[in-house]
Design goal:
It is built from 7 helices and 12 strands. The chain is an alpha+beta fold. The relative contact order is 0.11. The protein is elongated, with a radius of gyration of 28 Å. About 35% of the residues lie in helices and about 20% in strands. The strands form 3 sheets. Strands 3-2-1-5-8 form a 5-stranded mixed beta sheet, covered by helices on one side. The protein binds dinuclear copper ion. Dinuclear copper ion (CUA) binds next to loops.
């Protein structure tokens, strides 16, 4: 839960610094108020139970009250909050650097998974030409800003990768940007931070930050078509059950299926997890997911569509495991 204070990204580091300043500053009024409370309690005890303290002269009393209101209600908040406002503004600027052009990655929220769209290798922006899709595992280069261009297909989601940066809402009908930058290689967990339905808490994201060269190798491989062409039997089985929602790049002619209703499966076997970060990518988990996805993730859009005892299930899992 304290991921955000153990940053691995430019934004998260700046936010953590700000958080600590706010934490220490907030201790000042806390200590003063608790101190006053202790003084009052001690005084009352010294004066004995039930006895009222001797009343001060009315004029002096009023002056004392006014002084407390001015000091505690106006001066102290100003002294504490003005530096915080300045730091918030400075942090917002520090999170983004402008000396390097950012690479764009499209992120579309669905109930309950993340569709990711990359520019083809060699390009930096999504409007520069060809793009390709993957899902639920966001790969980024270290030391380069990345603009997540976010939208939503259904309801409001929010993307939050605590070790890299703050959150941004994914709102239907609006396109927004969140700039992130990893400062060191690593694998992080992201999550949806806006209640979006029954499986909101099961909408996770793996984020892998690679050194530049490793990232380019990943991009090159990920942009390619399926590693294993399905044979005729698998074309039938996959075409009947899976292809209407899940893309396999290079297998069917473009436009045969809509394909983007569910995660792109072209390189599924190379991902660490399935079902948007909630199950390990193992044979057992794949089988469990395909047989009854509603049991694993209530209210998601995938129906159970294969008889649990069918040999077809084993064939499909075999094939999915070859999609490196
Ligand atoms: Cu998507 Cu909560």
């Amino acid at each position: 839960m304290l991921d955000m204070l153990d940053g691995s990204g430019r934004g998260a580091d700046a936010i953590a610094d700000l958080w600590w300043v706010m934490f220490w500053l907030s201790l000042i009024p806390t200590v003063i108020v608790l101190g006053m409370l202790v003084v009052i309690l001690l005084r009352r005890r010294r004066q004995g139970d039930g006895e009222d303290p001797p009343a001060a002269a009315p004029l002096e009393h009023e002056r004392g009250e006014r002084r407390i209101i001015l000091l505690g209600g106006v001066a102290l908040p100003l002294v504490l909050l003005l530096p915080v406002v300045a730091m918030v503004i400075a942090t917002a600027h520090a999170r983004e650097r402008t000396d390097v052009e950012a690479m764009e990655i499209g992120v579309t929220g669905h109930r309950f998974w993340w569709d990711l769209r990359y520019p083809a290798p060699g390009n930096e922006r999504l409007d520069q030409g060809e793009t390709f899709r993957t899902a639920n595992e966001l790969h980024i280069p270290v030391g380069r800003p990345v603009d997540l261009v976010v939208e939503s297909e259904d309801v409001i989601h929010s993307i939050w990768i605590p070790r890299l940066d703050g959150k941004i809402d994914l709102t239907p009908g609006r396109t927004k940007r969140l700039r992130i930058e990893a400062t060191e290689p690593g694998v992080h967990t992201g999550r949806c931070a806006e209640f979006c339905g029954a499986s909101h808490a099961l909408m996770r994201l793996r984020v892998v930050a690679h050194p530049q060269e490793e990232f380019e190798a990943w991009l090159e491989r990920e942009a390619g078509p399926v590693a294993t062409e399905p044979d005729e039997g698998m074309r039938m089985a996959f075409g009947d059950s899976c292809a209407p929602c899940h893309d396999l790049r290079g297998v069917w002619e473009a436009g045969t299926f809509r394909g983007n209703l569910g995660p792109d499966l072209t390189h599924l076997a190379s991902r660490r997890t399935i079902a948007a970060g909630i199950l390990p990518n193992t044979r057992e988990a794949l089988g469990r997911w395909i047989i009854d996805p509603q049991r694993v993730k209530p209210d998601n859009n995938m129906p159970a569509n294969i008889a649990p005892d069918g040999g077809e299930l084993a064939d499909i899992v075999d094939f999915l495991e070859e999609l490196e």
